[in-house]
Write a structure and sequence with these properties.
alpha/beta, 7-stranded parallel β-sheet, 6 helices, 42% helix, globular
Amino acid sequence: MTARTALVTGASRGIGAQICARLAAEGWDLVVTARNQEQLEHFAAGLAERSGRHVVPVPADMAEPSAAQTIADALGGVHDRLDALVLNAGMGAIGPFADFPVRRLEKLFAVNVRSTYALIQQLLPVLRKTGVMSPHGARVIALSSMTGVAAEPLNSAYGATKAALTSLCETLSVEEFDHGVNATAVCPGYVATDMTAGLPGVDAASMIAPQDVAEMVVSLTRLTKGVTIPQIPMTRPGPNLWRA
């Protein structure tokens, strides 16, 4: 039986690395991408050795317009199916609405939205093919954010990109359900990763553990294509449920 295949962006550390490790442990083959070639290749080699699975590294910078084509071409060279596309790569930036640089906003949209849109477009043919033939369908799982669901101070730009990402997933599901393609935006609050290190006013000990987010992502891949889950908010315990 052919192994299920996942492509994970932002794969070499943090949430992405934990997602990859869990999928490999469950028998998946992987195509993994990240910006740092040396770090990515080291991660892929180690994961392949530990799990015995086929793990292909594809260095790519999601800020570059050519990244989507590079990744799609690499996947097509090694696999003829794609059961899960996990969109974990992203960029974070905070600052007050009044003076947040527009050029920074444009970079956030390029990495968090445009690159995702382009990559899904490039991979849609293989997602459709897999979605039709597999009882699980083909899952697109995007790491969005609670800041795109509930407003947080200093997150006007970042939150806007994540709200756009969540909307993209919902539209993909309603357009592609006939092909067995479902999309889910996983929307965690602040997660204890490198991106949130030193975040003002939020203690790292109170943040969501990366392994909890990884578990939520991987659990979606166990579902059949008979269910669509548009978004999953994940908030930190406290007196206000709708917070990052």
